[in-house]
Specification:
With 152 residues, the protein is α+β, with helices and mostly antiparallel strands. The chain has a single domain (5-151), classed as Roll (Thiol Ester Dehydrase, Chain A). 28% of the residues lie in helices and 33% in strands. The chain has four helices and five strands, in the order βααββββαα. It has helices spanning 24-41, 46-52, 126-131, 138-148; strands spanning 5-10, 54-65, 74-81, 88-97, 102-115. Strands 1-3-4-5-2 form a five-stranded antiparallel sheet. It is globular and about 40 Å long. The two termini are 12 Å apart. The mean pLDDT is 94.
Length: 152
């Protein structure tokens, strides 16, 4: 689906906690990694942020865990931009297990665009906004996932 970035991976043993499933901190790490990959794929790699002396910082994370993930699971992590205002942007995530085609977790991060030297929020540049397609309705993503993702 246009506007949705997909990264597929296999859960390693290092991601497993004492309860025998993926540790919640791994979900946060994966969310940050896929956001960075999506940004780079849309023309905003780390080098561009360094050159423009800008960056993103997290205002908040929310994760709804629906099912546990285990070592060896093949997961597709989907992410998309859900909107923009002057200085903030919600990014959503969907964790999808390929073997049983189940949603493992849904998540959202509110990112704030900042001046890297001061840490102060600044206006999101128009060329950044133009690089991403906004998907405001999660139902569209879920419908596309159920139809298309198992084929990946």
């Amino acid at each position: 689906m246009r506007g949705v970035f997909v990264h597929s991976f296999t859960v390693s043993g290092e991601s497993i906690d004492v309860n025998g499933h993926v540790n919640n901190l791994e979900y946060l790490r994966w969310m940050q990694e896929v956001a960075t990959m999506h940004s780079a794929a849309q023309g905003w790699p780390l080098e561009r942020y360094l050159r423009t002396k800008t960056t993103w910082v997290v205002r908040s994370h929310s994760i709804q865990y629906l099912r546990p993930a285990f070592a060896g699971d093949s997961i597709s992590l989907l992410t998309w931009i859900a909107g923009f205002n002057d200085r903030m942007s919600p990014r959503r995530y969907l964790f999808w297990r390929l073997s049983d085609q189940k949603i493992l977790a849904r998540a959202e991060t509110i990112w704030v665009f900042v001046d890297a030297s001061t840490g102060n929020p600044i206006r999101i540049p128009d060329d950044f906004k133009a690089a991403f397609e906004v998907i405001g309705d999660d139902a569209d993503v879920l419908q596309a996932v159920r139809k298309d993702l198992p084929k990946i």
